[in-house]
Description:
Layout: H1 7-24, H2 31-38, E1 48-52, H3 58-66, E2 69-74, H4 77-87, E3 92-95, E4 110-114, H5 123-133, E5 139-145, H6 151-160, H7 166-175, E6 179-186, E7 195-201
Parallel strand pairs: 1-2, 1-4, 2-3, 4-5
Antiparallel strand pairs: 5-7, 6-7
Helix pairs in contact: 1-4
Amino acid sequence: xxxxxxxxxxxxxxxxxxxxxxxxxxxxxxxxxxxxxxxxxxxxxxxxxxxxxxxxxxxxxxxxxxxxxxxxxxxxxxxxxxxxxxxxxxxxxxxxxxxxxxxxxxxxxxxxxxxxxxxxxxxxxxxxxxxxxxxxxxxxxxxxxxxxxxxxxxxxxxxxxxxxxxxxxxxxxxxxxxxxxxxxxxxxxxxxxxxxxxxxxxxxx
Length: 205
């Protein structure tokens, strides 16, 4: 587990990064990548959607265009403040922990999370919470940093935060009892596999 896969350190990190986040973000997580992820996230105008680790609202803004009701949760007050200023009352906002979601069972028709798992100390616990709050059959989509193929870069990356591949994602999703797991990698022009999208569903039964 890397040094930023810690709630306290991540909060401090984003307190300083938030003012620059929207400037830096397009080099790592851009609209083309977001649109590709949305193609694997079947939602409609009647759906109630949760964005876990919504940050400054980059993905949340796109979810508003497709869903009937969007809820955004983040542990960073700095990130949430920027998201609120951009999107206002179009979203229901919450400060909270991905590993302890403050919602009742079966509350959402779909659950999304992008750019957040790398900071979760216990990914399986967070995914299990996403399964708990999702209604039976709800799509669950996660976007995170794809593990570099070269050993020195992989070692360095994992010393900072979670970087993972499809095999590791399979383990986490299966332990969280999510079904129909699939993966694809995406990225900006300089690295087309910088991020991994994992899509799955809450069990129907």
